[in-house]
Specification:
Elements (H helix, E strand, L loop, with lengths): L1 E5 L7 H11 L8 H5 L5 E8 L4 E3 L5 E3 L4 E11 L2 E9 L8 H12 L4 E7 L7 H16 L3 E9 L2 E8 L5 H12 L9
Parallel strand pairs: 6-7
Antiparallel strand pairs: 1-2, 2-5, 3-4, 5-6, 7-9, 8-9
């Protein structure tokens, strides 16, 4: 079972979150960490930990529970109206393909049962490298397995071409742009997709 904890700069696990953020996303796709932590935009910035119990049977057969929490990943999302946009989401490299990503998405959906959840992925056909194309295809397949479908929204941000996927209903291009206009309306100079 995953435990969810809000991420704050003073959190003891903050260095792990920052390291994962920097390793999981290329520089052109990241915004400064301080923006993810400030409250100008109400974000849900969560760390996920595995609290699975370990059973250790001693000589007398007694059961000991010794399970330190394992940092699994994080998500950073923004909600407005009935749309929740997962802006950043990553699972620790060594723990990928073990179901943690699906559990994290499920936790987000449970927190927002009446929302359309959206994520963006880099457009596969723009990849010029076979290895990068394979990563993009795996990412799309992961979201598809977890109930996300293609939406009619493609956009460019920070030099990258993205396609929006949604679960819980389709989000139109107009709705997506209005979502970001509303979120960023009080932030001078902020660019929206």
């Amino acid at each position: 079972m995953l435990q969810i904890t809000e991420i704050k700069k003073g959190s003891p696990f903050f260095p792990q979150v920052q390291a994962l953020y920097e390793s999981a996303f290329p520089a052109n796709e990241r915004i400064p960490m301080k923006q993810l932590l400030d409250n100008k935009i109400k974000r849900e910035f969560w760390a996920f930990f595995d609290d699975a119990l370990c059973e250790n049977h001693g000589e007398k057969g007694d059961r000991e529970i010794a399970a330190p929490l394992t940092f699994c990943g994080f998500s950073n999302s923004i909600s407005y109206g009935d749309i929740t946009n997962i802006v950043y989401f990553a699972v620790v490299q060594e723990l990928r393909s073990r179901g943690y990503g699906s559990q994290i998405l499920q936790a987000i959906r449970e927190k927002h049962p009446d929302s359309r959840i959206v994520v963006d992925i880099e457009v596969e056909e723009d990849s010029k490298d076979a290895e990068e194309l394979e990563r993009r295809n795996r990412r799309r397949e992961f979201y598809t397995r977890n109930g996300f479908n293609a939406s009619p929204v493609d956009y460019f941000w920070q030099g990258e071409h993205y396609r929006l996927l949604s679960a819980g209903g389709t989000v139109t291009d107009k709705e997506f742009r209005n979502f970001w206009k509303e979120i960023l309306k009080d932030i001078p100079g902020a660019k929206y997709p």
